[in-house]
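Renewal narrative, Specific Aim 1. Our central claim is that a sequence can be written position by position from structural information alone. The example that follows is taken directly from our test logs and has not been curated for this report. It begins with the structure tokens describing the chain, in the order in which they were read.
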């Protein structure tokens, strides 16, 4: 007897494929981006409000800043830690630090 069994489908095993390691990063980064588009906050304030992990938010901050989507608006006292921190935004209209061209 040569009976070959097929592997059960993901639906049959009740697997949630949306929790795959490669699909989790984009929604969290989108939450981070959207929060900073609505409000100006420090990275720690974003973590407290959204429930994202600090290490992930720092990674997202670095990636968005490197690609030109995130700006430091001003430095001030963080409402969560009480320490000096940079307030961030992804909304271009909130960018107070105007880039001036260097003449020399």
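The sequence written for that structure reads:
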């Amino acid at each position: 007897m040569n009976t070959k069994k097929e592997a059960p489908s993901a639906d049959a095993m009740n697997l949630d494929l949306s929790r795959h390691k490669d699909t989790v990063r984009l929604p969290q980064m989108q939450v981070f981006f959207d929060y900073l588009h609505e409000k100006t906050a420090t990275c720690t304030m974003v973590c407290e409000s959204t429930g994202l992990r600090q290490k992930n938010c720092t990674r997202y901050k670095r990636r968005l800043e490197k690609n030109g989507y995130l700006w430091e608006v001003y430095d001030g006292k963080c409402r969560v830690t009480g320490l000096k921190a940079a307030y961030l935004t992804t909304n271009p209209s909130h960018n107070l630090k105007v880039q001036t061209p260097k003449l020399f």
